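Subject: Sanity check before I submit

Could someone independently write out the structure tokens for this chain? I want to compare against mine line by line before I put it in a report. The sequence has 315 residues.
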Amino acid sequence: MVETERPAGPAGESEKRWSALPDSVRRHYPWPGETMQLSTGHALHYLDVGAKDQPVLFMVHGNPTWSFYWRTLVAGLSDAYRCIVPDHMGAGLSDKPLEYPYRLEDHIRNLTELIDRLDLRNVTLVVHDWGGPIGFGAALERQDRIARVVAFNTAVFMEHVPLSIRLSRYKGVGDLFIRGFNGFVRVAAFRCITHQDRLRDGVREGYTAPYDSWDHRIGHLAFIRDIPLEDGHPTRKWIDRLTAEVPRVFADRPTLLVWGDRDFVFTPRFLEQWQRWFPRAEVVRYADAGHWVIEDAHERIVPKLRQWLSDHPLP
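---
Independent answer below. Compare away.
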């Protein structure tokens, strides 16, 4: 049976975690959010911004970002939409347990539990990067809850993985680079944003602040090692399922594909596959934007998304 009451974690936990962020970060991210104690016993942090009776935008981040990545969409759309923005386990202000599997299926299970316990319906799924497999995985589990789809630079199928990411999967190399030097976030902030001036005045700190120790960077490394490059990798079965079922189940939903063409990971070749799967989707491309497309182009994306949502009303 679905629980409809509002769940909560320990009183004040989300406020405590948010307050620990630097002032320069909280200026950009002014929402303490909520903390939900999952059935696993771990605490999942999420934003719930906007009136509860408004249509739901369910924004799912990737690696190494967190809900901070969606802040400009939350600020720009929460007047008319309820923005639900979770931090995956190991990310942002959620728990970062050292003894945790951190598999795709675990992240999918967490989001499915969040959808159920908040009793979210008529959801617009908004995904980016690893948020694609995770968000669509949860959507497959709750297909009747998903009304519209917005995808930013992501994939739910296997394609080319850059050498730098493949090398980071190796024991020793990845541990030192990612957990030792916080290198994945630092390099991503350089390679994933075309307009580097966007990282001034606390924005760069916003991406690095939750990952202030060796232990707190475990999620970044786990995500990279969960890329199922090997045929026998335990996550491959989930990617195979997503590849088979996502176009079959969701191609009839109103869909917006938003792409930064200067993405070194999810190149325009990935977009071409999405267009084959979703031939009726509206496509918006930003030639000057990189992988973190919202960071590069949010002034253009927010009004575009608002107009698209208005043009495709919920049934």
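---
OP: Matches mine. For the report I'm noting this point. The CA atoms of residues 41 and 95 lie 10 Å apart.
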